[in-house]
Design goal:
By secondary structure, this protein is α+β, with helices and mostly antiparallel strands. It is built from one helix and three strands, in the order βαββ. The protein has one domain. The radius of gyration is 13 Å and the shape is elongated.
């Protein structure tokens, strides 16, 4: 499954990079994989993660 996370307005690029790294590390510790990061024109970011597949209950 694919999930996204949004980082809001963070004009300082070093702080934005730190927020991206912190979120990516947090999600990785839960078993997710970072697929892509998009820096937005409004000084934010969108992170795309692949999450482990959860088997359907029957």
């Amino acid at each position: 499954m694919i999930e996204t996370e949004i980082i809001g307005y963070t004009p300082d690029p070093k702080k934005r990079a730190a927020r991206i790294a912190a979120l990516a590390n947090e999600r990785e510790s839960r078993g997710d994989t970072l697929v892509s990061v998009l820096s937005t024109p409004n000084c934010g970011a969108i992170l795309v993660f692949r999450t482990p597949a959860v088997p359907e209950k029957k």
